[in-house]
């Protein structure tokens, strides 16, 4: 996960002075990198990012971005997926970190497979074997998408919050 930090006053003077920073890093490493890019100037902006799980604006606080990434890499893989899912659904960083445990991740790759699993698990009540052939799983899948179930590359996600 990287950001490109650019010296703002040099940029305004027509020079591109900047550096890619790999985050998260220690505060000392961050200060050293910023001093290389900014000295003697103090203003910067973020020109580009790669691999970040959240959106960064050009004038965001780099120390706060670094702190967020430290939190992110400390998560288990599934927890990180849940945080990324909540962020993609429009929730802010703090909310996503606090509520990632309220996301259910289904290993199935599409909503119709989830519909089959939910029927098998009895979520719609007991259904006799003579009626199983009449169940419209694609309609259940469509309704699940209306209820907030989302298909993603990593599986199907549902936020219960």
From TrEMBL:
InterPro entries: ArdA (IPR009899), ArdA_dom1 (IPR041895), ArdA_dom3 (IPR041893). It comes from the Bacteria. This is Antirestriction protein (ArdA). The lineage of its organism: Bacteria, Pseudomonadati, Thermodesulfobacteriota, Desulfobulbia, Desulfobulbales.
